[in-house]
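As described in the Methods, two query proteins were run sequentially through the folding procedure within a single session, without resetting any intermediate state between them. The first query and its resulting structure tokens are shown here.
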Amino acid sequence: MGVEAATIVAHEPIAEATWRLRLDCPSLAANARPGQFAMVRIPDRQDPLLARPLAVYDTFGALADPTCWLPARAAATAKALRYADFVYAVAGKFTTAATRLKPGEQLTLWGPLGNGFTLPKAEHLLLVAGGIGQTALLMLGRAWLAANPAGRVSFCWGAREAGLFGHVEDFRNAGMAVELATLDGTVGTRGSVIDLLDSLAGQNKIAGGSRTAIACCGPEGMMAAVSNWAANRGIDCQVSLETPMACGIGICFSCVAPVRDREGGWDYRRTCVEGPIFDGQSIAWEATV
């Protein structure tokens, strides 16, 4: 982990109340693993004072045009990676202030932080996102396909309505099948992401047991439902918790999550250092409500 000043290269809205941010931050880009995050702060500001955690959405090496959101990915070694992308939803004081930042301005960040995903052993990887949860999953899908060229990845994304989906083509361009669900039925399956999973399973597009693995990120209720859905079918499920954080390095204990112990009870674990990735069955979801 290191602290660095990062210059904004590109920054613009990509969906309803959703923005994509590209930073020139070689150290973070070279070291980030799928599922890790960075603490990002607007410098020289007292309000908001604290940094906020943002999942590393993607990393890039040298680009012909670093302001283009859909560049041909550079064939680069880890040492040549330079840019990191973050996607955030406008929901509070920090993200509202962030929307006013322009290319050329700087942010302060430290990371990468957290444990990151484990590449699952399976034939089919399901990436399941709700809301802004796609931000934790793109790098995992790409890394898993690189390690399992004969495997397949399905990206399942649920939202209230079609206007909340931004840059879905990132997943398609990486070789993943994309399945969408909206509560209002404006695109894809009408209903929740669980309805989408049920539909795919009913079409024999999802096998139970060890042939399939799930990685999930989104609202807690949605991740609890996906974890239960996976457990009922004998499918391993990793979840990326989006617990609010203040420091990102385990000092403040503001990001604790209830994790089950071997005796059947549970205790709090720091999401920033012992997560944010956990086995979905290890979370005491009833204690998160």
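Immediately afterward, the second query was submitted; its sequence and tokens are:
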Amino acid sequence: MWHFISEQISECIQQDFICDDIRQVNAGDSHQAFIISDGKQRFFVKTNGKIQLANFKAEAEGLDHLSSPTLFKVPKVICMGVVSDHSFLVLEHLAMSEGDEKTWFHFGQNLAKLHKNHTQQMYGWQEDNFIGLTPQSNLWQKKWSCFFAEQRIGFMLQLLSEKGLVLANIEGVVKSIKRLLIGHNPTPSMLHGDLWQGNAGFHKNQPVLYDPAFYYGDRETDLAMTELFGRFPDSFYSGYDEIWPIESDYQYRKPIYQLYHVLNHALLFGGQYIESAKITLKNLDS
């Protein structure tokens, strides 16, 4: 496998690369990840089963679109493909560092610029993709309340139901979400889609984004995710507010937006995420 991947890298970078150092690294639950080197250059490689090539293609597409505004350092896609029973994605290797108050402030400013200046006329994306290993529906839609209720919460509840986890009446929940979001018509902003600290960082003090679940939607969904699994530092939100202040009623929508990610974790991991999702679903009509 590694000989084939080395050949593909060599072809793409137009110089010889023969990996002689392969180190597996922790990169979450979705894929196996490695840093490979020939002593001069290093690359970050993700591998999975053959069927996951579609995930890697979607990830590469999202990275490409996030890189075009040049507000964030985004790892360059080198190549991808299938060898034996494995799919693989090779990315530029970035040496990551922790941020400080100043760099997180800059991160917040740049995210606000991304949301404010890179927009669409409708919500969704030109193709479906994934959030982690979970399919994500992105059919273009004009009404945000319908898009989020149907293609985010309703779709995720349907996936759970197909797995034998019936957490609520799907039709009733979709109606409740539409009712709660009716009248809220946010700008369809370019979104990362899965923005928590595990998918963000810094390279030479530049803010970095990776592992997107790309689409156009309410900017508040990105912000809600930053508060779900370990809140970003306060300076991040100060930087964001300087460019595009967060609306005061965001706090009422935040639990609904976070529910999407809790449901995804319930689907993938079960346990406490199922109970957490049930509590939020129960509170929708209260």
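The longest strand covers residues 42-49. We note this only descriptively and draw no conclusion about the first query from it.
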